[in-house]
Amino acid sequence: MASRLKHTAVNAEDFIKEEVLFHMLDHLRPTATGLDGVPAWFLRLSAPVFAAPISHLFNKSLAAGIVPTQWKTAIISTIPIIANPQQPSDFRPISVTPCSAIPHA
Q: For residues 79 and 23, what is the distance between their CA atoms, to the nearest angstrom?
């Protein structure tokens, strides 16, 4: 069953400009590789090539009011918050999302 469209207005200023996305890609910090298998260093290196098509994909998603399921999937890992963890409460969860789902503008 397809998701229902959101009842939000999309303004032109809400769209992600290619130049802004290029800057985001070019300044990605090293992170763990997510389910998409794309490492951050690859997106940094290929920012001049991928900025236009990725911004187009994000803008299509914004215009349609639909977020692809792949962008909402994460690998959940646990990180100990104390030196010798003994119980589940001694860990905190970390969600590793696909690197290609990056806009935080």
A: 30
Give me the mean pLDDT over the 30-34 stretch: 77
What pLDDT score was predicted for residue 20?
93
The sign one gets for the Cα dihedral 50, 103, 98, 23 is: positive
How many other CB atoms are found less than 10 A from the CB of residue 94?
Answer: 12
> What burial letters (b/e) apply to 33-64, b meaning 16+ CB within 10 Å?
ebeeeebbeebbeebeebbeebbebbbebbee
The closest of 3, 51, 2, 64 to 23, measured between CA atoms, is 51
**What CA–CA distances, in Å, run from 90 to 74, 75, 84, 93?**
21, 19, 8, 10
pLDDT of residue 95: 84
Hey, CA dihedral for 21, 103, 31, 33, is it positive or negative? Answer: negative
Give the mean pLDDT of the chain: 82
